[in-house]
Write a structure and sequence with these properties.
With about 300 residues, the chain is an alpha/beta fold. It has two domains: about 210 residues, Glycoside hydrolase/deacetylase (TIM Barrel), CATH 3.20.20; about 80 residues. β5, α4 and β6 form a beta-alpha-beta unit. It binds zinc ion. The site of zinc ion (ZN) has 5 residues, from loops.
C-alpha cells in the first residue's frame, strides 16, 4: 500500500506580524522522514511510475514524499535533507510563475495576510466599487468556518465562495501591488529555472498545473490548457518527461472525474488529490489520495 505525505512551506521561522503561513521546519521534516523510514520503504518517484500496481497492492508500507507549489525554500531546505538520507521526493511546480513571471494568487493571499490584519483586508474588499456582502451571507460565512473568528470566516467565505477565481485574482492583485514588488517576490519565493532543471535530471519534477486555479470549477478549455501548457512548458525547459500532476487545492470539487480524464488525455500517468487516505487499489491512477504531512506520524495533528 502507498501512503503519500505532502508538504508546502519549509522554513526555520514562521514568525510574521499576522501569522498566516504554516508548514514544517527543516528539523521537523527530517524527524518525520526518519519516522516514516522506520515504518516502511520511502520509494522514489521513478519507482512509482515503473510499478504502480505492484506498489499499491504490496502488503508492505510504501511511502512517497511530495512537495507542492515549487517554492525555493523546498530546494534550499528539503533537498539537502533528502540527499543526506538518500531519499527522493517529487516536486510539483506551476508553470505560470516562470512562463508569465507572475506570483500565484494563493501565495499573494498568504503574503498579504501575513502583513495586514483580517479587518484591513476586508475593508479593502468592501471599498471596491459595487461590492456588497449581506448579513445573511455573513451568517453563512460563520456557519461555514466555525473554527475561525468572525472576520476570518467572512474573508475566507468571500475569497472562496463569493468571488469567482477571476474576480478573486483581480482584487488580490490590486492589493498585492500596493504592498509588494512582484519581481522581488518571484525570485525569493519560487525555485529558479536552474533548480527545476536539477530536479528534472533526477526524475523528481511534476506539474502543479499552470496557474494554480481550482481546476474542477473551470471550463473544459481552461482545464485542458492548465494541464497541457504546464506539461509542455516544463518538458521543454528541462528536456524531460513530466508524467505526474498534483491538482491545486486537491479537494473533491477541484479534482473531478472530468479533470482526471483530461489529465490522462494530456499524457499524465499519475495524479494526486488531497483526499486523505492510503492507496491500496487505485480505481483511478489519476486521482490518488494524499495526506497532509501534519496528519502522518511526526505531524502536529497526528495522534
Ligand atoms: Zn498548491
Amino acid at each position: 500500500m502507498l501512503t503519500v505525505s505532502n508538504y508546502h512551506y519549509i522554513r526555520n521561522n514562521f514568525d510574521a506580524k499576522y501569522p498566516s503561513i504554516f508548514g514544517v521546519t527543516p528539523l521537523k521534516f527530517k524527524e518525520q522522514l526518519l519516522l516514516l523510514k522506520n515504518e516502511g520503504d520511502i520509494i522514489k518517484p521513478k519507482e512509482l511510475l515503473k510499478d504502480i500496481d505492484g506498489i499499491l497492492q504490496s502488503s508492505e508500507n510504501k511511502f512517497l514524499i511530495t512537495f507542492d507549489d515549487g517554492l525555493k525554500e523546498q530546494f534550499d531546505f528539503a533537498v539537502p535533507i533528502l540527499d543526506e538520507l538518500d531519499i527522493q521526493a517529487i516536486f510539483f511546480v506551476n508553470s505560470m510563475n516562470h512562463q508569465e513571471k507572475k506570483v500565484s494568487t494563493v501565495h499573494k493571499i498568504h503574503l498579504l495576510r501575513s502583513i495586514i490584519s483580517t479587518s484591513e483586508f476586508l475593508e479593502k474588499i468592501y471599498n471596491i466599487d459595487g461590492f456588497s456582502f449581506s448579513n445573511s451571507e455573513k451568517d453563512k460565512a460563520e456557519a461555514t468556518y466555525i473554527y475561525d473568528d468572525k472576520n476570518s470566516a467572512v474573508l475566507k467565505y468571500i475569497l472562496n465562495f463569493k468571488l469567482t477565481f477571476n474576480q478573486q485574482e483581480k482584487i488580490v492583485k490590486e492589493l498585492f501591488d500596493i504592498y509588494f514588488n512582484e519581481d522581488e517576490v518571484l525570485s525569493s519565493l519560487y525555485m529558479s529555472e536552474y533548480n527545476i532543471k536539477e530536479l528534472a535530471k533526477i526524475n523528481c519534477l511534476g506539474s502543479h498545473t499552470h496557474s494554480h486555479c481550482p481546476l474542477g470549477l473551470q471550463t473544459s478549455d481552461v482545464i485542458k490548457f492548465e494541464l497541457e501548457n504546464s506539461k509542455t512548458f516544463l518538458q521543454k525547459l528541462t528536456n524531460s518527461n513530466i508524467d505526474m500532476v498534483s491538482y491545486p487545492y486537491g479537494t473533491a470539487e477541484t479534482c473531478t472525474n472530468e479533470v482526471a480524464a483530461f489529465a490522462k488525455e494530456e499524457g499524465y500517468q499519475i495524479g494526486f488529490t488531497t483526499k486523505r487516505g492510503k492507496n491500496t487499489f487505485a480505481e483511478n491512477q489519476l486521482l490518488l489520495n494524499r495526506f497532509d504531512c501534519n496528519d502522518l506520524p511526526g505531524g502536529k495533528n497526528y495522534r
